[in-house]
Give the backbone structure.
Amino acid sequence: MTNLYLILLAGGSGTRLWPLSRKNSPKQFLKVGSEHSLVRETAIRCQPLIDFKNTFVVCTQDQSALMKNDFPELNDEQFLLEPEGKNTAAAIALAAYHLNKVDPEGIMVVLPADHKILQKEKFQQVLQEASSLAQAQEALVTLGVLPHFAATGYGYIQKGESIGKAFRVKQFKEKPDLETAEKYIKSEEYFWNSGMFVWKTSNYIHEYQQHLPHDASLFERHFPSPLGGEGQGEGSNLSALYSQLTSISVDYAILEKSKNVVVLPARFDWDDVGSLASLAKYFPRDEFENSRTGQTISKDANNNLFISDEGVVACLGVENLIVIRNKDSVLVLPKERSEEVKILLEEMKKKKMDVFL
């Protein structure tokens, strides 16, 4: 029986959710409508299909203490620590070359660590279908989310010929403007690119060797072949290796170039929790459509999101706002501009206010 391995891509910074998400406590550690953090929730969502013993977490070294605290079930070898972030192609390669030592034909289920998916049974059914597809077709399988509005914040995947429930990928599309997104929706030929992938370890390494040969050679010198060879072994300097890697996403480096990519419809509700406004649905809501958590009070207020981790947030006569008090920071902005938080972060950097980031 082919083994499934969960690869959690957990090294992101999550700046779009500031001030809840900080450099020292990024988005994947937030508890969003759950007793568990987003990253732990992601692992639990895969059980019992993939147990903790087959779970690996890829994160940066400065996040390791938080991550190990969140996963006491894992041993040190299951935390694959990057000296620095070099985007998803390298993060997945680190996991693939690690697994290649013990199970080259194992199936990697590669998931971002900061999404919300509430329909666990439907999610696991899709993962099983994707795993079978990855094995039978020797394909790189990406999960495509059925779009239900003209989103401009996601990349899109155009489907080609069908393969059972799946489709050959015709092409990947960048995040579109609104007019283009509306055309995609109308055509019924496109999926949102979820960033969730399933493939055999050996197939990913093959594609990595083909499209990033220099980077692949670095990993091959660092990780000895499972069949033996002249590799330096894992005792060699991973920091030196990473300093020479290309910083590029797996989409740009491999998926857009490969001839063997398949998209499988993700038939479950999906939320990448990509903005502060998206949090509202996970908190209690009053009769005036105000979502809130923590000590908050409001009067003559409608359709707001109020969050306080200490003290009280009090608002009078406001609507369509996000008001957050978190640690040493307060954020107030219109809901419709919640994806523009990065503008404020850039201003803070200019004013050397990094201590609040």
User: Anything to note?
Assistant: The radius of gyration is 21 Å.
